[in-house]
From TrEMBL:
Region of interest (Disordered), ranges: 221-242
Protein name per Swiss-Prot or TrEMBL: AP2/ERF domain-containing protein
Organismal lineage: Bacteria, Bacillati, Bacillota, Clostridia, Lachnospirales
Entry GO MF terms: DNA binding; DNA-binding transcription factor activity
Compositional bias segments (type: Basic and acidic residues): 221-230
Residue intervals passing through the bilayer: none
SUPFAM superfamilies attached to this UniProt entry: DNA-binding domain (SSF54171)
Amino acid sequence: MAKVSRRTAEDLTGRRFGRLTVIRQLENRNNRTRWLCRCDCGNEKDVAARDLKAGKVKSCGCLRREGNRKKMDISGQHFGRLTALYPTDRRDSHGVVYWVCRCDCGNQTEVPASNLVNGTCKSCGCLKKENQDKIQDRLHHIDGTCVEFLEKRKKRKDNKSGFRGVYQGKNGRYRVSIGFRGKRIYLGMYDDFENAVEARLEAEKNIYGEFLELYHEWEKKSSDDPEWARRHPFSVSVPVPK
């Protein structure tokens, strides 16, 4: 049963406000008279009486969406490799319209208009894949090891200790390991963080350092004598802790 305020509310049943037709009164909220309305598009909406009479609300929201669509007509425009074809009825969490786009590679994809306009989406995904492939082509994978990774390794922020290869367990102790040639090498457990880091750095010096030194020596010699490099592919035995 609808809760009516002490003062009899004006009966708005059947009246039209923009695209909204008032159906019936609802329970008051925050001392405001509420009315259930049906929009011309078929949706229903709960609206405060004062917003209806003041003209603040004229539809279920479809009027605003249509206005946004007209305001952002990007059909035929190019955004990177994408050409906007036509809008869909799909919306993102912010109400932005998804557009069907054709990529230069021939694929079609749906992208929010804002992502096209601000440049965060420039292809169906093929551009990202090509860039990733180019990065891989620039990397030197020698004997199962990436040279660039060893040379530019940094502190890790994805574990509790904050240092690469040093992981703090639930018991408070630090487990130390190092990756080399596609394998994870266990270096021991330590009670003290500084000792754990020292063990990790020592392993890097002995394993990574020696590997890089030998590789760069081989690289220099191979650039001077490609024929020698062909006969002597890079292969080295680096001491690994047991």
